[in-house]
Amino acid sequence: MAIITISREMGSGGSIIARNLADKLGYDLIDGEAILKVAASHGLSVTDVEMADEKPPAFVESLDTSLEIDMHRIEQIILEYALKGNVIIYGRGGQDLLAEIKSVFRTRIIAPFEIRVERWAEREWLDPDLSRILIRKSDQQRAGFIKYYFDRDWNDPYDYDQIINTTKISEKMAVELICTGVEEKNLLVHRSQCKQKLTELIQRKKIEIAILQSDQVDGYHLQVSVNNGETILDGHVHSEEERQAIHAIVQKLAPASTIKDQLKVFAYHINPKEG
């Protein structure tokens, strides 16, 4: 049950490498197209996916709530694909979404900025100045996406198992390097634990979505985790009624789960003089 994640810079050749890798291994490629195939069954329109997929927040409260829910739905789709095994997750913060899965092989495809500008201009028949603008925007957008949703520096090399610079390494060789890396014995020993953890992550994601959708709960101040049949609630709520609403959501979505409630109640009082 192998899972490979590919993080890439625009113009680095990552998309071609991912497709060729999927063909060589016979794995499913989980990219934007694969997400759109099942988006409707998760309550997502094409526009919803385009707005949320690999995008940082808009910092407009009403819009951000909607985007956050849609982002969680996209993550649920990715997790459900990952549960099937033998998949390549292309972008979408896959290496961070699956940080708890120790058997995942995390790859990053890079190349120097100006080389990527030249490649993209040739590929898309663009003026180099426009190519430069598009690649800089893409880099900033994807870095912002990872920073906001996962609080991580996109370029930190320690978060990847393999980094391939395609300045000199061909796409064919990159595929071979990834195929070799995914067979690392330290990854293989963890694969038996993969399904249970993925199932727990999917359960957690469903609960998070329901909490964010609830009119009775302010979901931005609490954290949910699921471990060995136990749903752990942490953070704070504004009232006992809000706590009970959260319990009801968990009991509906995970009736067999034990709830470990570590929530604190912080009631907010408005000063009439500030009113």
Structural description of this entry:
The protein contains eleven helices and eight strands. With 275 residues, it is an alpha/beta fold. The protein folds into two domains: 3-182, Rossmann fold; 195-274, 2-Layer Sandwich (Histidine-containing Protein, Chain: A). It has a five-stranded parallel β-sheet, with helices on both faces. Strands 6-7-8 form a three-stranded mixed β-sheet. Helix 11 links the parallel strand 7 (230-237) and strand 8. The chain is globular, with a radius of gyration of 21 Å. Residues 269-275 have low confidence and may be disordered.
Keywords, separated by commas or semicolons:
single chain, 275 residues, alpha/beta, Rossmann fold, Histidine-containing Protein, Chain: A, 2 domains, 3-stranded mixed beta sheet, 11 helices, 8 strands, globular, disordered C terminus
